[in-house]
Amino acid sequence: MGVYETQGFKLDNSGKRVVVDPVCRIEGHLRVEVNLDANNVIRNAVSTGTMWRGLEVILKGRDPRDAWAFTERICGVCTGTHALTSVRAVEDALAIKIPENANTIRNMMQLTLQVHDHLVHFYHLHALDWVDVVSALKADPKRTSELAQSISAWPLSSPGYFRDLQNRLKKFVESGQLGPFMNGYWGNPAYKLPPEANLMAVAHYLEALDFQKEIVKIHTIFGGKNPHPNWLVGGMPCAINVHDTGAVGAINMERLNLVKSIIDRSIEFTEQVYIPDLLAIASFYKGWLHGGGLSSKSVLSYGDIPDRANDYSAKNLLLPRGAIINGDLTRVHEVDLKDPEQIQEFVTHSWYKYADEARGLHPFDGVTEPNFALGKNAKGTKTDIKELDEAAKYSWIKAPRWRGHAMEVGPLARYIIGYVQKNPEFKEPVDMVLKKLDVPLSALFSTLGRTAARGLECQWAAHKLAYFHDKLIANIKAGDSSTANIEKWDPATWPKEVKGAGFTEAPRGALAHWIRIKDGRIDNYQCVVPTTWNGSPRDGKGQIGAFEASLMNTPMAKADEPLEILRTIHSFDPCLACSTH
Amino acid sequence: MIETFYETLRRQGITRRSFLKFCSLTATSLGLGSAFAPRIAHALETKPRTPVIWLHGLECTCCSESFIRSAHPLAKDVVLSMLSLDYDDTLMAAAGHQAEAILEEIKKKYKGQYILAVEGNPPLNEGGMYCIQSGKPFVEKLKYMAADAKAIISWGSCASWGCVQAAKPNPTQAVPVHKVITDKPIIKVPGCPPIAEVMTGVVTYMLTFDRIPELDRQGRPKMFYGQRIHDKCYRRPHFDAGQFVEEWDDDAARRGYCLYKMGCKGPTTYNACSTTRWNGGVSFPIASGHGCIGCSEEGFWDKGGFYDRLTHIKQFGVEANADKVGGTAAAVAGAAVAAHAAVSAIKRARVNHAEENQGGK
Amino acid sequence: MSLARDSSSYHDMATATGVDEAAVQQAPSIKSMYVYEAPVRLWHWVNALCIVTLAASGYLIGSPLPSMPGEASDSFLFGYIRFAHFAAAYILAVGFLVRIYWGFAGNSHAREIFTLPLLTAAYWREVGAMLQWYAFLRPYPNRYVGHNPLARLAMFFGVFLMTLFMLATGFALYGEGAQAGHWSHILFTSWVIPLFGQSQDVHTWHHLGMWAIVLFVIFHVYAAIREDIMGRQSMLSTMISGYRMLKK
Ligand code: HEM
Ligand code: HEM
Ligand code: NFV
Ligand code: SF4
Ligand code: SF4
Ligand code: F3S
Ligand SMILES: [Mg+2]
C-alpha cells in the first residue's frame, strides 16, 4: 500500500509493525496493529473487530415484540440501550404512541445507564492508562489526604484512610499474586501522576467499584434486573400504583423514594469523586494532547432523551442532534435516519459480502452475510494471523458513513455539537473545564477531551435523572398513572408491511436500529452501533475510522508497551460485541 | 511469598476472633452447623489464593457486569482478596502479549490448580474465526487453558447453553463449553446474566469448602438452581386464586397479580430470582411487572414468543402452538367422523331398502 | 381362508386376530359370550372419567379462565382446577396399574390392549379388513369376540402408550412442584426433564399429548356407537354387562 493521504492523515505502513491483541479493559475482542517510524511515532493504524455473532441474521422471522430482548443481548455493558432503540424502532414502524410516564421512565433507564457506564469506564476500564498503581506505594498518605481534601469535600479522605489503603496495597503487591494488575505497564514513562494522586485514584477505583452497583438499582426497580432489564413495546412493563390497594405490587411511593435516594447519591459521587478526579488527573496530562483523530473533523449525534413523549424531533431532545463534517464548526447538519443518502454501510474492508461492494447500503436495505478472508499480504495463516493486510478485508466491523464521511460518535461528539449549537448545558461545563485546566478549545479534540466529555456527561445525566424523577411524580400527581399503550399489542392489528427506525444516544454514541415488518414478523433488522462508527475499518475510498485516526501521529514511550495505544483507544470506551453484533 | 485467604482477611484489619466468627457464620448460613466452622477456618488459613483465569468467547459481557454487582461478598473482595483474578480481558491492566504471557505463567505454575471461568462460548463455524483472539480461534485458547485447569465454571447462558448467538439459525455455530471440553468438571451457572450473588456464592462455596457444589443432571449447582422461579414466586397466591394480569397496565397489573397469561416462564425456569432477587435484593423481573423470559433455561430464545404461554411448535407451521395444532386436528377428526357417519347412514338405509325389496319378492 | 378347528395354533391365532369362528359357531346355542370381566369394565369407565377430567382441567391450565376479582385469599380457582387435574391423574395412575395387573390375572381379552401381534400376518389382514369396512369397501365386517383388530391397534397406541406418556410427562411436571425427594421427582422429573432438555418442552409435549388422546376418544366413541348399530356384535352393552352378543 505504501503511503497515501486521507482525511488529513498521512498513512505509511513501512515502519515496524506492532500488534496488540487482545486489547483488554474493553468490551469484547479488538485487535490493533500500528506501524511505528524510527522515532516510535505511529504512522499507520489498523483496528479490527475480531468477533461476530450474527444477531441481525438471528432476528429474521421473529416477533418484533421480542426483538428488544435479543438486541439487548448485543451488549451487557451498555445494557438496555439496544432494547430501548429496538422498542422505538418497532413503535416507529407501527405508529404506536407511548404514555408520558413510559417516556419518563425510559429516559431514567437510559440516563442511569449513562451514569453507570461512564463511571465504570473511567475508573475500571480507563484509569489504569493514567494511574500507576505501583507508584501509589511511594505516596505519603498525609499529603494524599491534603490533595484529596483540596479538590473535594468527599468525606473518605483522612490520612488514616489512605494509610490503611496503602498498607493493604503493599501487602497485596508483596503477596506476589497481583491479580488483574499483573504484567501492567507500571513504571512506564508515559505515566505522569505523582504517587499521591495515584494513591487517591486507587482508593476511588475501589470505592467506585462498590458504588456502581448502587446506580443500576434504578434499572432493577423499573426493569426487574440489571444487567438486561425488561422493556415493552408500547410503554414499560412496570405498572404504577401509588394510591390504591396492591400498590406494593407496583411502582409505589417506597420505590420512588428508593429511586430518589439513588439519584442523590449518584449526583454526590459524580460531583465529589468523579469530576474532581478527572480534573486532577487531567491537570497532570494536559501536555499530552494526542488522540484527537476525527473529533475535530467529523462528528455525529442522533440526539436522545425526549423531554415529552412521542416527539423525536431535535427540539424535544435534551441531548443534541446533528452532524459536523470537514471540521466546519460553523455548520451543524440535520440528520435523517430514513434518508437513503445519509447513512450507508460499506463492506469493502469488512468480512461481509454485498452483491456490489462498490456501493454502500442504507440500513433499511442492509445485508449481513459473513465472508471471512485474509488479504494476500497478511502474515500467518487463516487461523493463525500474525499480521493483517489492511488493503483487503480485515475486520468484522462494517464501515458506516454519513454522506460518505467517516464519523466519530460518543460523548465528545455530543459535547462538540452541543457546544457549537451554544446549548448552555453543554457549552458552560466545557468552558469551565477548559478554564480550570487553562487550555484552549482545541485541547477538547484529544484523547483527554474525550475522557473529559464523558465525565461531564455523567454529571449531566445524574442531574437529568433528578429532573425526570420530579417529572414522573408531577405526572402521577396530575392523575396519570398509565405506563403502556396496548392498542396495537395484537399483531392482527398491524399493517401487512411496515418499516421503522429507532435511535438513542448510547453511552458510546449514536445508535440506531432499522426494522422491516412483514406479516407480523421481522423481515429485516439492521443495527448501526456507536462502536461500528468509531471502530470502523477503511472504506472503498481508503478513509479510516475514528479509532484508526485517533492513533495517528502519537509517539510511544516504549515500542513494546502499548500504553499510549490503550489510552487513546480506551478513551472511546470501545464495545466490540456492540460493534459487530 | 503467597498469601492465604486468612492472611488476606487479617491484613484487612480483621481480627482472629472475628475471622472465626466469620467462619461459623459461614457454616451456619450454609446450613452446615457450627461443627464445620473449624474446617472452614483451617481451609482458609492454609490456602494461597486460588488463581482464576476468566476467558471471554462470543458474549456480551453482561456476566462480568453482573459479577461486579455482587453486594455480599463485594466484588472487590472476591477479586482482590478471596481469589486471584489473574486473567480477565475486561479488567486486567495488561494487553497484547503481556496479557497472553500471564496465561502461560499460570498454566505452568498452577497446573491443575487454577479455576477456568468462561463467559461466552466458542463458535465452530469458519474454523472458529468468528471469535478471534491473538490471531487464533477462541476455541483453541479455551481448550489450551482447560487442559490444566482444576475445574471450569461456565458463566451464564452463553457458556452453559449457547444463548443468543446460538439461537436459530446459529450462524456462527456457537456451542456451549461442555461441547468442546469433555474431560473436566464443569459447573454451569446459567442466566442471562446469572444473579451476581449466585455467581459469587458459587465461587466462595468452592473456595470455602474446597469442593465443587453438588450439581443436578444438567450440571447446575442444586443450591441455586434446584427450584423454579414459580415455586417461590411471591405472586403465587394470585396464580392459585386464578388472578391474572390480562393485559399490560390493567388493574390486575397495578395490583401485582400473576403474570402467567402474559407469558411468564416462571413455571418452567430454574433459577434463584424469586428468592435471592437481583441487585442486592431490590427486585426481580416479575416484581417489576414483566414475566420471566426463562433466561437461565436451555434454548429459551427458540421456544416461541416471550409473551405466549404456549410454546411455538416449529414442526407444524409458522404460527402454531399445541392448542392450534391439536384443536385443528380435533376439528378435522370431528368433521371426518360426522361425514363418515352420514355416509354410513345412507349406505345402511340403502342396504335395508334392498333387503326389504328382496323380502318383498 | 379356512382354519383347522383342531389346529394347536388355532387358539393363538384367534387371540391374535380376534376371529374366533369356533366360538361363533356355538353362538346360536350360547347367544352371548362373557368378554369383559368386571375389573375391566369398572376400569374402563373410571378411566374415561379421569381422562375427561384431565383434558378439561389440563386445557384450563394451559388457557386459564378470566381473572378472578378481589383478594387472593377469597378464591382458589386455579388451585382447584390444578387439584382436579392432579387428583384425576393419581386415580388414572392407580387404575392403570391395576389394569396392568388384570392384564395378567384376567382372561385373554384383558391382555389385548397391551400387546400387538405385530408379526402375525393374519392380524394385519384383519386390520386391512376393518379398514375396508370403514372405507365402505366391504358390505359386512368380520365378527370379533374380543377387540376388533383395528380397535386393538388404536388402543395399544392411543390408550396404552399415550397413558404411559402422559403419566411420565405429567408426573415429571408434578415432581417439579413436589420438589426433589418426592417420589414423582425421583421416578420421573429427574430424567424426563433432562431428556427433553427443559421443562417448557415437557409442557408442550404433555399438552400435545392431550390432543392426541382427544383424537383417540373421538374415533373410539364414534366407532363404538357405529359398530353397535352397524357391526355384527354388541358394543356399548358389552362394556356395561361384559357379555358380547353376536349378530348374523
Ligand atoms: C376417555 C375416554 C375413553 C377411553 C380412554 C376409552 C378406552 C377404552 C379402552 C382402553 C377400551 C378397551 C377396554 C379393555 O379391553 O380394557 C375401551 C373399550 C370400549 N369403550 Fe371406551 N374409552 C373411552 C370412552 C368411551 C365412551 C364414552 C364410550 C361409549 C360411548 C366407550 C365405549 C367403549 C366400548 C363400547 C368398548 C368396548 C369395545 C369392544 O367391545 O371392543 N368408551 N375403551
Ligand atoms: C390424559 C391425561 C392427561 C391430559 C389430557 C393432561 C392434560 C394437560 C394439559 C393440557 C396441561 C396443560 C399444559 C400446559 O399448557 O402447560 C396439563 C398440565 C399438567 N398436567 Fe396433565 N394431563 C394428563 C395427565 C397428567 C398426569 C397423569 C399428570 C400427573 C400428575 C399430569 C400433571 C400435570 C401437571 C403437573 C401439569 C402442569 C400444571 C401446571 O403447570 O400448573 N397430567 N395437563
Ligand atoms: N458501541 C456500543 Fe454499546 C454503547 N454505548 C451500544 O449501542 O456498548 Ni456495548
Ligand atoms: S449469558 Fe447472556 S448475559 Fe451472559 S454473556 Fe451471554 S448474552 Fe450476555
Ligand atoms: S408470576 Fe410467573 S412465576 Fe409468579 S406465580 Fe405467576 S406464573 Fe408463577
Ligand atoms: S428471565 Fe431470568 S432473571 Fe430470573 S426471573 Fe426469569 S430467570
Ligand atoms: Mg449492523
Task: Kindly describe this structure.
The complex is a heterotrimer of chains A (about 575), B (about 350) and C (about 250). Chain A is globular, with a radius of gyration of 24 Å. Chain A has about 575 residues and is an alpha+beta fold. Chain A is about 40% helix and about 15% strand. Chain B folds into three domains: about 5-225, NADH:ubiquinone oxidoreductase-like, 20kDa subunit (Rossmann fold, 3-Layer(aba) Sandwich); about 230-300, Cytochrome-c3 Hydrogenase, Chain A, domain 2 (Irregular), CATH 4.10.480.10; about 330-360. Chain B is built from 15 helices and seven strands. Chain B has helices at about 5-10, 15-30, 35-45, 60-65, 75-80, 95-110, 140-145, 155-160, 175-180, 195-210, 220-225, 235-240, 250-255, 275, 320-360, and strands at about 50-55, 85-90, 115-120, 130-135, 135, 150-155, 185-190. Chain B has a five-stranded parallel beta sheet, sandwiched between helices. Chain B is elongated and about 110 Å long. With about 250 residues, chain C is mainly α. Chain C has a single domain, classed as Fumarate Reductase Cytochrome B subunit (Up-down Bundle), CATH 1.20.950.20. Chain C is built from ten helices and two strands, in the order αααβαααααααβ. Chain C has helices spanning about 10-15, 20-25, 25-30, 40-60, 75-105, 120-135, 150-180, 185-195, 200-230, 235-240, and strands at about 30-35, 245. Chain C has a two-stranded antiparallel sheet. Chain C is elongated, with a radius of gyration of 21 Å. Residues about 1-5 of chain C have low confidence and may be disordered. Chains in contact: A-B, B-C. Chains A and B meet through helix 1, helix 4, helix 6, helix 7 and helix 8 of A and helix 1, helix 4, helix 5, strand 2 and helix 6 of B. One iron/sulfur cluster binds near residues 239, 260, 264 and 292 of chain B. One iron/sulfur cluster (SF4) binds next to helix 4 and helix 8 of chain B.
Spatial shape of chain A = globular
N- to C-terminal distance of chain B: 118 Å
- Cα gyration radius of chain B (Å): 28 Å
Beta-strand fraction estimate of chain B: 5-15%
The unique ligands bound to this protein are: protoporphyrin IX containing FE, NI-FE oxidized active center, iron/sulfur cluster, FE3-S4 cluster, magnesium ion
> What is the residue-averaged pLDDT of chain A?
97
The number of domains of chain B is 3
CATH class of the largest domain in chain B: Alpha Beta
What is the count of helical runs of chain A? 16
Q: What does the overall shape of chain B look like?
A: elongated
**Percent of residues in β-strands of chain A:** 5-15%
How would you classify the helix and strand content of chain B by structural class? alpha/beta
